[in-house]
Predict the structure.
Amino acid sequence: MRNCLARKILRRVGIAGLVTLSATSPYFGLSLIRSFNKENKKKDWRRFYLSLSYLNRRGYVRILEHNGQSIKVEITRRGEKTVRGLDIDSLEFKKQENWDGKWRVIVFDVPVNKNQNRRAFTEKIKELGFVMVQKSVWTYPFECYEELVILRKFYEIEKYVSYFEAIEVEDETNWRGRFNLKSSAAI
């Protein structure tokens, strides 16, 4: 989905689930647009309405009721899945200044019928900064458990992925070098 305003609208509707927009003028969408820091202009309202229509046509939202004063919008399953995907696209691990000396390690064994999910998951953790230790063993030096739970659930492989923290690693010097970590923290 390339339309930035449509993404914002979908994300907002996704948070609420069901939204009723209303106003005393035909510019009912302007209040929502203001929340996106847009100027209060007629062309902005038109962009908003076109984006909402686009989302409806594509099956991301359903317009339940529409009259001159209000519009009731509901997110669909497809829209919910897309919102989760948008959140995954913006997901980042936080890098701390001081390393706590713990290695976050994930190990996975995903069945063949979920190969596509495994490949997508692997690409995402690589993009986020994980480093491969062995074929299905990846490591990261900073706290990332909550984000990993979201990823496992999104790619529908949560029961095939294990997470653990390690304090002592045989190849720690090599691992620290991969992440440009100077020395381990005092434990």
About this structure: The chain is about 40% helix and 20% strand.
